[in-house]
Design a protein that fits this description.
2 domains; PmbA/TldD fold; globular; five-stranded mixed beta barrel; six-stranded antiparallel sheet; alpha+beta; 450 residues
Length: 450
């Protein structure tokens, strides 16, 4: 099995043995094909507010999921109890469900020849030996530094420190067994500036798979405080058609909508504005979206997808042209295509453009808005229609003029993508979608009047 190529610790080895044993029991109950996922997650999270401890939470989450296939019929069950009797019951339930479902010619494991065989190390395992007391002290430092920025910061939504580890094994009846382990850590702070109806809230956070990758706690707090102060005394945005500059932390949502529309589930249901768009230019010719699943310390680096299919580095969009869809084996079969190794979603995605500095993007806007926060869910993957509440800053003559809130930005995603004028070099690394600021040259902005 693939696990032989892995350097597994004792905990992963136990999960691997459990997965193999469960597969044997599935076959003994008549399953022609079966797949098993086992996970063991642990974490610590603390939250402080106004200098006082609010919560301390230790977590431990273990689970086992089973999917069996009986003559094209699929049945699934799961359990959080890893006792043999509970697993036996779950297998029986999965088989019973399969016997009562309709056959589906597209159901089944991914093709055996697509299974991953190489398991490189992605440097994602960095446990943080931090106690609850130490985490509390770090959170207090973070919040304290933010509150000390200015006397107008009179309230707080708190500061949080979290650390977690995850071990997971996936195995199937093709003889594949893959094991993964990763850690994730974060530090965040949310502060409130002003009083009464004039209060404004903002936040900042840092995250990574290694504690050494986190920003300094005091710097995170100060950044949160400065962001909250910047939002005081907002004005109404003008109404009209203007350039919209999306800050990196919200720009990735624009790319997320593209990923949703290019995903197999939306496509085979014919619920996507990118239906039949493969091979078409959907972004400017200078723009590329590159999937890089093998990045060191990548937030979603993986040698295999949720079905064991080997991941590969490839372009989703090259020179503005959509090169492929995002497919697992089921959606691929429904579309008459092949899996792209994306069961479970996209891996690390790099958004590349000409790499303009943020100051250059800002300086080229005579009148427009910079969006730092998005609200609401007014996006249709079917039509591409886009309408969301927003907050941010008004831009005049290439400079941030004043904060604006409670305005709406609207357009159609296909037109918005074609209207992208730049992608900044200020890349946000806190997501598996790595992008800088994105400038959309024209969108409808609805706010107050001049």
């Amino acid at each position: 099995m693939g696990a032989a190529a892995l350097n597994m610790d004792e905990s992963l080895a136990r999960l691997a043995q459990l997965a193999e044993d469960t597969l044997k029991r599935c076959r003994a109950m008549g399953a022609g094909q079966a797949e098993v996922g086992v996970n063991d997650d642990a974490g610590l999270a603390v939250n402080v507010r106004m200098g006082e401890v609010e919560t301390i939470e230790h977590s431990r989450d273990r689970g086992l999921s089973i999917t069996v296939y009986l003559d094209g019929r699929k049945g699934s069950a799961s359990t959080a109890d890893l006792d043999p009797a509970s697993i036996e019951t779950s297998i029986q339930q999965a088989c019973a469900i399969a016997r009562f479902t309709e056959p589906d010619p597209c159901a089944g494991l991914a093709d055996a020849e697509r299974m991953a065989r190489d398991f490189p190390e992605f440097d994602q395992w960095h446990p943080w030996a931090i106690s609850a007391d130490q985490a509390i002290e770090l959170a207090l430092v973070c919040e304290g530094a933010g509150r000390a920025v200015d006397p107008r910061i009179a309230n707080s939504d708190g500061a949080s420190v979290s650390t977690g580890s995850s071990r997971a094994v996936y195995a199937n009846s093709h003889g594949f067994l893959g094991a993964e382990r990763s850690t994730s850590h974060s530090l965040s702070c949310a502060l409130i500036a002003g009083e009464g109806e004039a209060m404004q809230r903002d936040y900042w956070y840092t995250s990574g798979c290694a504690a050494e990758d986190l920003q300094d706690a005091a710097n995170v707090g100060r950044r949160a405080g400065e962001r909250a102060l910047r939002r005081l005394a907002p004005r109404a945005a003008s109404t009209g058609t203007f350039p919209v500059l999306f800050a990196p932390e919200v720009a990735r949502s624009l790319i997320g909508h593209l990923l949703s529309a290019a995903s197999g589930g939306a496509l085979y249901r014919r619920a996507s504005f990118l239906l039949d768009a493969c091979g078409q230019q959907i972004l400017p010719a200078w723009m590329h979206l590159r999937e890089r699943p093998h990045l060191k310390r990548g937030l979603r680096s993986a040698a295999f997808d949720a079905e064991g299919v080997a991941t590969v580095e490839s372009d989703l969009v090259r020179d503005g042209v959509l090169q492929r869809y995002i497919l697992g084996s089921y959606s691929a079969r429904k579309l008459g295509l092949a899996s792209t190794g994306n069961a479970g979603g996209i891996h690390n995605l790099l958004v590349e453009g000409r790499g303009e500095a943020f100051e250059a993007l800002l300086g080229g806007i005579q009148r427009g808005v910079m969006v730092t926060e998005l609200m609401g869910q007014g996006v249709s993957t079917i039509t591409g229609d886009y309408s969301r509440g927003a907050a941010g800053f008004w831009i005049e003559n290439g400079q941030i003029a004043w904060p604006v809130d409670e305005f709406t930005i609207a357009g159609n995603l296909r037109e918005m993508y074609q209207a992208i004028e730049a992608v900044g070099s200020d890349v946000d690394l806190r997501s598996h979608i790595r992008t800088g600021s994105i400038l959309v040259g024209r969108m409808t902005v609805a706010g107050g009047e001049d």
